[in-house]
TrEMBL record, chain A:
It comes from Asaia krungthepensis NRIC 0535. The keyword Repressor does not apply. Keywords: ATP-binding, Cytoplasm, Glutamine amidotransferase, Hydrolase, Ligase, Nucleotide-binding, Purine biosynthesis. It comes from the Bacteria. This is Phosphoribosylformylglycinamidine synthase subunit PurQ.
UniProtKB/TrEMBL annotation, chains B, D:
PANTHER family: PHOSPHORIBOSYLFORMYLGLYCINAMIDINE SYNTHASE SUBUNIT PURS. Part of the phosphoribosylformylglycinamidine synthase complex involved in the purines biosynthetic pathway. Catalyzes the ATP-dependent conversion of formylglycinamide ribonucleotide (FGAR) and glutamine to yield formylglycinamidine ribonucleotide (FGAM) and glutamate. The FGAM synthase complex is composed of three subunits. PurQ produces an ammonia molecule by converting glutamine to glutamate. PurL transfers the ammonia molecule to FGAR to form FGAM in an ATP-dependent manner. Keywords: ATP-binding, Cytoplasm, Ligase, Nucleotide-binding, Purine biosynthesis. This is Phosphoribosylformylglycinamidine synthase subunit PurS. Its EC number is 6.3.5.3.
Automatic annotation (TrEMBL), chain C:
Part of the phosphoribosylformylglycinamidine synthase complex involved in the purines biosynthetic pathway. Catalyzes the ATP-dependent conversion of formylglycinamide ribonucleotide (FGAR) and glutamine to yield formylglycinamidine ribonucleotide (FGAM) and glutamate. The FGAM synthase complex is composed of three subunits. PurQ produces an ammonia molecule by converting glutamine to glutamate. PurL transfers the ammonia molecule to FGAR to form FGAM in an ATP-dependent manner. It comes from Asaia krungthepensis NRIC 0535. The lineage of its organism: Bacteria, Pseudomonadati, Pseudomonadota, Alphaproteobacteria, Acetobacterales. The keyword ATP-binding applies. Residues 199-352, 571-703 form the PurM-like C-terminal domain. Residues 71-186, 433-556 form the PurM-like N-terminal domain. This is Phosphoribosylformylglycinamidine synthase subunit PurL. ATP binds at residues 49, 88, 489, 526. Pfam families: AIRS, AIRS_C, FGAR-AT_linker.
């Protein structure tokens, strides 16, 4: 799997992502710069977490207007696989590669804690190594993760099976009105979504921070191992 | 010429910041406060003397960058 | 204010009559306003350490693993594999009271720069915080702003905040403490220092533009705080973590080349102290052309530019032929880059602005003749040992009260606002172990880090308190299995012109020094913050509790072997160390009996060393499943914290140790650890052979903390009580 | 009655957000944009019909909560 990681000024989880991709795929990803106007040959583009352009104005707004986003858009339109995590998810929504927007957390504070995600769909490159209904741990680290979209948009996402992950509590209970289950107040507890062709995925939590047994847990591995299986053709 | 671009969340989009401020004001004893909405104000110096041009440019900048039209509305005015 | 230079203006700038006379002698004329500004900040307490230097000199600062001790921007120690840990702690107390968010945020920014200026990538932040009475609205406002500010800055720059400490006491009502610590990792062969060299080499300014921010911040932080603080209020410095992040990446990119001769961050007193220190250390002259300085505002004077404390700026001396390489890197990262001066052979600092020489000061006397005081001291009488105190409450009530009290309540509300995982190397997050652990990227090694100080002990007995702070830091690192390496300190005290404060200061340093020597734990960097004192309209002046905060690091060879608090089932609990039931100055005494008296616990550095070395050895041999030292709240709180961490309960044996039950459970005896082990017999045997006091304490299992007298508290119940304080206080 | 409280950083206080937005607009091709300053706008529903009272209350709320007077200025107006 040839993966590229986009670095914007202010990106800060590119090394985490690089480490995870390397560990799971056995191959070092290529670092891409926000000003790049062409792409090397890639199977997967990752927009990692951080504070691109300081998260000033709105999280992800300025990143979405970077030169490289034109390339990412073209890549996605050609059917390429794109993963956006945290700030990367915010950028994908700002660039309208994914619907909706990420508002300030309902509690108005940055959230850095373990989140628990339930896998909502199985037949995608991003979720194939889980079973539908599986619950796994993934650290949250964001101030603006409160997913919002119009009711019509939300219905469409659900109707097209495009909700990838939902927040649940550690025991697996889904309760959108309860902060213990849905920490940032996202509508319908949505933590991650997919594009219509299921090849662009955005999620707020950080599976890339739970891949190394030496650091305590490997809950995040299936995201990457699934991609490797799908993309090592 | 200076313009001001005001960006507010659309009617119907939940405004957690506004809600939090409303609650805090109530705790402080301001009992008669109803809905609170929070937005951003941007003041931009534009090198032009033409009001219409400045407004049109403000509108273009808002559409392209300053506002996210999925969730926000905006208004542009000349302030100086 | 009138800006005519005379003794009166000098006094307003914080220079005493004698100090101003010295300035006149050095200059041989009346200095210009800019020159007076330079003298006043360089001779401020903050920059010159004029009250503290004679005492700091007594601290041990060397060891075979120390690469750079005090005197550089941060301390540097060998951590193996050709790598070094670079770390320091620094205060931002006064700014954090005026504007808590920005004060704390810029505090984090400042200490980060001290670390990456030496060539290290920052890998962890910690913070030591002291707040006033939590029931006061002003305290809540300060907590809210400080916590948001630390998170706002650290989260954005992408350095995980992995640890720290928080205490409350009314003595901090008007003067909270915000001490921030950064740990970085560098290659030993790529450490950058600040001594300028090479006459004719260009002096380069990079980072943000200069504005009128925080002028005279250095002198302000050296002045006692009073109700006129508002009128002293300089423009508050606003931090820009985004620019700092770019500055980190750009500097590290440049540091991978061979372009840099010397580099220095612009901290307190900005351009003045960075230029003076670089030239002074290198024994060269420096000429600055202020017209070249990137400026955010129009019409700034030389005085304003030299004293501005605008954030996110660095000064470097480059090899002339490499300036283009450097410029390209900073342009890539959208940062200002300007050649603002040159090294000269004049041994003077010369400052030019708009065709005029605004300052021309000989550097040697500016440094050598900086004031140095042996301030008078008095030593308060130490409180006597506490006699027996009856138990008015019972064990269960006391335990629940302690778990809920501000000084012991869960800090999760705080650390959940700090990104503790960014970087992908965090092995033990806040709350998981006695010290935080961050893996050294690309290796199996981990760095353990902690900050510690118990101000109520220091107030009662500064000497014992200073030693205890060092011992506790050492113990916290030991409890994870790591080997403690070195210390940074942040000495927060009141007004040094008051003999009783100066006595506290000297005694605390004495205690620290003794502990550092006994534990092979040298001090490699630090910071002094004096004048932490609030004067009231009544004329009364309230100093803070003496607070010598200790930051420390250690190293563990295999990060997967590090030990935390959470214990599995089917373990035996073993107590290492001797409990005599020390209730003097304990939290039990304060929270249950509402008394703050008696002597603090005895510090036995020999026992400390022996017990700690034994515990570390047992962890290294794989005989330990969980470990937690005894500190605030005593043994029962220690055990309760272990139960809450894992959700696994335990039964404790019937105590029969010749002290009353409550003293046994809640005494804050030092040099003690609780260990969960699956090899109890072997461990107890090994301890006895090593003459380490050891007792069987109980066994793990179930989901409650159970005592033989029938008390049974579930992990859930204790967690609930423990978790309530911060959310209840802050989320109303 | 609805009031609007506009909160802006004081003259001379660094505005990192404004700086970043100015830079982004330049990259997007808006070459004639000078200084950009960013502030907050709050719209509050106040249960009163008295303009003067509403303005006075807006001022009080700004002083107590909505603005940070150490670094920010504010202005209150009635908008409806
Ligand atoms: N209490 C202390 N103990 C040991 N070293 C100290 C102490 N206080 C300051 N130092 C050392 O003195 C030097 C100057 O400190 P400081 O002025 O705070 O540095 P900076 O200018 O980088 O902020 C540093 O090397 C620092 O580590
Ligand atoms: Mg420094």
């Amino acid at each position: 799997m040839k993966a590229g990681i986009v670095v914007f000024p202010g990106t800060n989880r590119e090394r985490d992502m690089e480490q995870a991709l390397r560990l799971v795929s056995g191959k070092a990803p290529t670092m891409l710069w926000h000003r790049d106007t062409s792409l090397p040959d890639l199977d997967l583009i990752v927009l990692p977490g951080g504070f691109s352009f300081g998260d000033y104005l709105r999280s992800g707004a300025m990143g979405a207007h970077s030169p490289i986003l034109r390339e990412v858009r073209a890549f996605a339109e050609r059917g390429g696989y794109v993963l956006g995590v945290c700030n990367g998810f915010q950028i994908l929504t700002e660039a309208q590669l994914l619907p909706g927007a990420l508002l300030r957390n309902a509690g108005m504070r940055f959230l850095s804690q373990d989140g628990f995600l339930r896998v909502e769909t199985q037949d995608t490159a991003f979720t194939r190594d889980w079973a539908k209904g599986d619950v796994f741990r993934a650290p949250l680290a964001h101030g603006d993760g409160n997913y919002t979209a119009s009711e019509a948009e939300l219905d469409r996402l659900e109707g097209e099976d495009r909700v990838a992950f939902r927040y649940v509590c550690a025991q697996g209970t889904l309760d959108a009105a309860n902060r213990l289950s849905n920490p940032n107040g996202s509508q319908r507890s949505i933590a991650g979504i997919l594009s219509a062709n299921k090849r662009v995925c955005g999620l707020m939590p950080h599976p890339e921070n739970l891949v190394d047994p030496d650091l305590g847990a490997t809950d995040g591995v299936p995201l990457f191992s699934g991609l490797v299986k799908s993309l090592v053709a | 010429m200076k313009i001001r671009v005001n960006v507010m969340l659309k009617e119907g989009v939940l405004d957690p910041q506004g809600k939090a401020i409303g609650h805090a004001l109530e705790v402080l004893g301001f009992a008669n406060v109803g809905e609170v909405r929070v937005g951003k104000t941007m003041e931009l110096e534009i090198a032009t003397d033409d009001r219409e041009k400045a407004l049109a440019q403000g509108e273009a900048m808002a559409r392209e960058l300053l506002a996210n039209l999925v969730i926000e509305d905006f208004a542009v005015e000349v302030v100086g | 204010m009138s800006m005519i230079v005379n003794a009166e203006l000098a006094a307003r700038f914080g220079l005493s009559a004698e100090e101003y006379q010295k300035v006149l002698d050095i200059m041989g004329r009346v200095p210009s306003l800019t020159e007076l500004g330079i003298f006043s900040v360089m001779w401020s307490e903050h920059c010159s350490y004029k009250s503290s230097r004679v005492h700091l000199k007594t601290l041990p600062t060397t060891a075979p693993w120390v690469i750079h001790g005090p005197g550089e921007n941060a301390g540097v120690v060998d951590i193996g594999d050709g790598l070094a840990a670079v770390f320091k702690m620094e205060s931002h107390n006064h700014p954090s009271f005026i504007e808590p968010y920005q004060g704390a945020a810029t505090g984090v920014g400042g200490i980060l720069r001290d670390v990456f200026t030496m060539g290290a990538r920052p890998v962890a932040n910690l913070n030591a915080l002291r707040f006033g009475d939590p029931s006061l609205p002003v305290t809540q406002r300060v907590i809210d702003g400080v916590v948001r500010g630390i998170g706002g800055y650290g989260n954005c720059v992408g350095v995980p905040t992995v640890g720290g400490e928080i205490n409350f006491h009314p003595a901090y009502n008007g003067n909270p403490l915000v001490n921030a610590m950064t740990v970085g990792i560098a290659r030993q062969d790529r450490i950058f220092l600040s001594a300028a060299a090479g006459i004719g080499n260009p002096v380069v300014y990079v980072g943000s533009k200069t504005g009128r921010d925080g002028i005279h911040g250095a002198t302000m932080s050296s002045a006692e705080f009073d109700e006129h603080a508002a009128s002293k209020r300089p423009t508050v410095q606003v931090g820009d973590p985004f620019t700092e992040k770019l500055l980190i990446e750009a500097c590290l990119e440049l540091m991978a080349t061979d372009a840099i001769v010397a580099i220095q961050d612009m901290g307190a007193a900005g351009l003045t102290s960075s230029a003076v220190e670089m030239a002074g250390k290198g024994g060269v002259g420096i000429e600055l052309d202020l017209d070249k300085v990137p400026q955010r505002e129009t019409g700034m004077t030389a005085y304003e530019m030299m004293l501005s404390e605008s954030q996110e700026r660095m000064l470097m001396v480059l090899k002339p032929e490499r300036t283009d390489v450097a410029r390209a890197i900073f342009e890539k990262w959208d940062l200002d880059f300007a050649i603002v001066g040159v090294l000269t052979d004049t041994a003077h600092i010369t400052v030019k602005h708009l065709g005029k020489t605004e300052a021309d000061i000989p550097l040697a006397p500016l440094a050598d003749e900086a004031p140095l005081y042996h301030r008078p001291m008095t030593h308060a009488e130490k409180p006597g040992r506490l006699g027996t105190v009856a138990d008015p409450a019972g064990v269960e009530h006391a335990l629940l009260t302690l778990l809920a009290c501000p000084d012991l309540a869960s800090r999760a509300w705080v650390w959940n606002q700090y990104d503790s995982g960014v970087g992908g190397q965090t092995a033990r997050r806040p709350g998981a172990a006695d010290a935080a652990i961050v893996r050294v990227e690309g290796t199996k090694r981990g760095l353990a880090m902690t900050t510690d100080c118990t101000p109520r002990y220091c107030q009662a007995d500064p000497h014992a308190g200073g030693a205890q702070a060092v011992a506790e830091a050492w113990r916290n690192i030991t409890a994870t299995g790591a080997l403690p390496l070195a210390v940074t300190d942040n000495l927060n005290f009141g007004n040094p012109e008051k003999p009783e404060i100066m006595g506290q200061f000297a005694d605390a340093i004495k205690g620290m020094g003794e502990a550092c020597r006994a534990l092979d734990f040298p001090v490699v960097s630090g910071n002094v913050s004096l004048y932490n004192q609030t004067s009231h309209p009544s004329g009364l002046s309230q100093p803070i509790l003496p607070t010598p905060a200790i930051g420390a690091i250690g190293v563990i060879d295999d990060v997967s072997k590090a030990i935390g608090l959470g214990m599995p089932e089917h373990c035996e609990l073993v107590l290492i160390g001797e409990i005599r039931g020390e209730l003097g100055q304990s939290l039990w005494l304060r929270e249950i009996c509402h008394r703050e008296d008696g002597a603090p616990p005895v510090i036995d550095l020999h026992a400390e060393r022996r017990n700690g070395d034994f515990v570390r050895k047992m962890i290294g041999e794989g005989r330990v499943e969980a470990c937690h030292d005894i500190a605030d709240g005593g043994l029962l709180v220690t055990v309760a914290e272990m139960v809450m961490a894992s959700g696994v309960g335990c039964h404790l044996d019937k105590p029969h140790y010749g002290t009353s039950l409550h003293a046994f459970y809640f005494g804050e005896d030092q040099a003690c650890y609780v260990i969960a082990t699956k090899h109890a017999a072997a461990l107890i045997d090994a301890a006895e052979k090593a003459h380490v006091p050891v007792r069987h304490l109980g066994r793990t299992g179930g989901d409650a903390l159970v005592l033989t007298d029938g008390m049974s508290l579930s992990a859930e119940r204790m967690r609930k009580v423990n978790a309530e304080f911060f959310p209840k206080l802050m989320e109303r």
